[in-house]
Design brief:
By secondary structure, the protein is of the alpha/beta class. The chain contains 11 helices and 8 strands. Strands 1, 2, 3, 4, 5, 6, 7 and 8 form an 8-stranded mixed β-sheet that branches.
């Protein structure tokens, strides 16, 4: 009798970790951006929140567009060829590596997440150009040392790296702790590296109500912050113009959405 295939065993272990009885942020967000990797429980809370605050759908979709514009800026204007994307989420269109490698086929990307649903889709994320590289780490945001050590297997930390943390830090309830996590990750990156952050903000009653509804659903809570708190993550960095703004206002493309949304972000460079 042959030994079981290690990959099949690993895949079975991943599937066993997926809880379909409660909503999950990656699947919920995937539903809002038009993906197909979600369950009924995620759609139910999604539809309820659409009734409370339809604007959250705009936050999800415009944040995705913000990702594309910031990656293009980093590759084309700043010459960045390495990305550390934390809180990967489920793959949709124009993931970080797809945008980066279209512009620079030699770009290298490391995705980090610890959600089993995301891990189950890692193969889709790992498709890379032959000249570049894409890796996936099953790691926890709170273990910054482990993330940096493992990412060094794919990225060259003697050269600048772009740290991408989009719609993820809201899972860290305490702002000081979230700030410390970002600082520790940036401390591990060389000068010339960049930080990209965007997140939902407590800038309207509707957004606050949507956050409260989501947090009461049984999902792992997600907290929205003030614009000032989002800006604080960039302490010590050189902000690219136009600074910390609504994601729709960060270097918008001609004909792109410029509507008001309850999500702010920015890009900062480590001196």
């Amino acid at each position: 009798m042959s030994d079981p295939d290690p990959q099949l065993v690993a895949a079975a272990g991943i599937r066993a970790r997926i809880d379909t009885s409660k909503p999950h942020s990656a699947r919920f967000w995937n539903y809002f951006v038009g993906g197909k990797d979600h369950y009924e429980v995620d759609r139910e809370i999604g539809d309820r929140i659409k009734e409370i605050f339809p604007g959250l759908v705009d936050v999800a979709r415009t944040s995705r567009h913000f990702l594309g514009r910031t990656v293009r800026y980093l590759v084309v204007d700043q010459g960045i060829r390495q990305f550390l994307d934390i809180g990967t989420g489920l793959p949709t269109a124009d993931n970080t590596h797809e945008v980066a490698q279209r512009l620079a086929p030699d770009a290298r990307i490391v995705y980090v997440d610890n959600d089993p649903m995301v891990l189950a889709h890692a193969r889709a994320l790992l498709t890379s150009t032959p000249e570049g590289g894409t890796a996936y780490l099953d790691a926890d945001l709170y273990d910054t040392d482990a993330i940096l050590k493992a990412a060094a297997g794919t990225l060259d930390f003697s050269r600048p790296v772009a740290l991408m943390i989009l719609n993820t830090l809201g899972h860290v309830a305490d702002h000081d702790r979230a700030h410390a996590l970002v600082s520790r990750l940036m401390d591990g990156l060389p000068p010339g590296s960049h930080l990209v952050i965007c997140d939902g903000t407590s800038t309207s009653e509707g957004m606050i109500a949507a956050s409260e509804a989501y947090n009461s659903s049984g999902a792992v809570p997600y907290y929205v912050r003030s614009v000032e708190e989002i800006g604080g993550f960039f302490d010590g960095l050189e902000l690219a113009e136009p600074g910390i703004v609504q994601v729709t206002q960060w270097r918008p493309e001609p004909g792109g959405s410029s509507s008001d949304v309850d999500a702010y972000g920015g890009v900062g460079r480590k001196p």
